[in-house]
Please model this.
Amino acid sequence: MIFDSDWLTEYLDDAPDLDTLAERLTDCGCLVELRERGDGAEKWDVEVTTNRPDAMNHRGLAREAAVATGGTLLPLEFELEENDEDAAELAAVEIADGAACSRYVARVIRGVTVRESPEWMTRRLLNCGVRPINVVVDATNYVLLELGQPLHAFDLEKVRGRRIIVRPAVDGEKLTTLDGEERELDPSMLMIADGEGVVALAGIMGGADSEIGNDTTDVLLESAHFDALSVRRTARRLGMHTEASHRFERGTDPEMAAVACDRAAALIAELAGGRVCRGRIDVCPQPWQARRMEFSIAALSAFTGLEIPAERVLEILTGLEFAPQIDGDVVRVRVPSYRVDIDRIPDLYEEVIRHVGYGPIPSELPILPTSPGRRNPNWELIDRARDAAVSAGLVELMTWSFIDPETDELVATQPLCPGPSLPLDNPLAQTQAVMRRSLLPGLLVAANANFNKGQRSLAVFEQGRVFSLVDQRPLERERIAVLLADEAGGREERFDRLKGIVNDMAVRIGLPAVSWKRGGSPWLDEGAGAELQTADGATIGLAGILSRELAERWDLRHEVAVAELDIERATEPPLSKFRPLHRHPPVVVDVTIEHAADLSYADLEGAVGDLASEWVEDLSLTGRYRDENSLSGAVRTTLRLVYRHADRSLTQEEVNEAHERLRRGLVERLGVALA
Model:
């Protein structure tokens, strides 16, 4: 808020220089952010926190300054002369909603002459960012900046029936406010009405029909206390923010209403040549009740870790007008009506600490009881999955958890996505209207974006949750997905690389042993796609080359290999065990077979495992060749077997016999040809 430095120091006896004053105010919590030259004084931009409406005026800030500098706050002095005409005979006030308006004070000033304000008032208003209007309105704004109490001046002749009624609006009522805007009202809004209709928005802005004009001679001056929540709701609903609503929304002083009304009436009479009628019209359905609190100085010292003398505590609280009384170690206070922020004993501690200073308070961490934290059981699994993917040379991506309904229909064709989807009640956009049931759509969108920016190869993964409905309740499951793309490699090479990565990840994560069964359509190419199944026949993943139709749907420039695994079937991987180095040499033998293209490697590997000798300790794929020009479509596959005996060296004859039995067995079981 903007303050006039000359105006501020006017309330201080023996005020220090402005540099010292600004420094002390900042130290006690009223941060002087900016100082610049104004008209005849400095303009100070002071950060007053929203819980301190008492300091949102010059006299309130001067009170803080007096305590901060060890000075004295001068009393508010003005002369109010009244004539013999009774104000209660010229106007009446009625409050229909005592909860929203606890007090309404009014005065009548007659015989005013509306003219420009004197130079000193105009200068101070302009320094505080308020545009001067005329002497009557300027006087109300001046008192607002001086004492923090919003006021409003009505042209008494325009108040129909000379009655003021504070009531909720009637549904459909309208009011044209002083800014020229027509406002449509509803019963949740508190209004100021006269004998025939609405004349002002309570605590926010007056109406145009009763404003002070050049021909105004009689003024009805309003000074009220409105409920902060009521004013805040109305201001938000109407999209309004005024100097008055800024104060009322944060809480004003109910006892200041009468003082401010007298002060403004005296100013108007002095500057506009008016006569103040005898007596206030003061309606107060809910009189203010002072709150009394007490605290221990020993407890305050323990709270701060600093010994604060009782004399210093009393000095600070007296300066802040808490009227402290001490009885041994106990301090009893009466909370002033303007301190709406004081609710608890620590609030009183803060008042003392602010002015003692935060510097002397020791910096020590409090002693708090602690207990060891517990990790979510899923975190171990997630860490293993991410570590396995990173170890395979993949880069992690994070994508949206939402997809569009059309993509969700495609996802429903995946073997990993049974059950209905989970739509959002209030989606951010139509393209994000459904919770994802698969991680692959997000990876495909990311691949498209990378290809469009010139990226030629990708090796990425995402670990995250997917969502579906099971028995009408949301179900979340942890998944991991992989995407590979490299324009330099062929299809078989890309598939083999994907398979190696997926098999390695499955072992590291702790998934059960899986077999690769041809499938995954329509997401995967029919000739290069597989479902990953456990021994009990459950599908826990899919892997292969993305089908051409889906590649075109996501506008992918390069062929991509994808995989997705349901990692919640994982168990804790077994601990690594030491195995002694082999004492006997291996015998390595290759076998090449010619077979039909529809014979899967999983079936071939399974047959070798059943037929091979117990001496075979390792089996691996060495090469796979397919003659594209051959009409038969035959494939040649070369396998490498490692023979080794645990207790002795094998002879070549033993290996040859065992290997020949394997070759004949493959021919009989699978119908393959030996090359």
User: Anything to note?
Assistant: The chain has five domains: 2-73, 82-283, 291-356, 377-569, 587-674. The CA atoms of residues 97 and 167 lie 6 Å apart. Residues 377-569 form a domain with the BirA Bifunctional Protein; domain 2 fold (CATH 3.30.930.10). Residues 491-509 form the longest helix (19 residues).
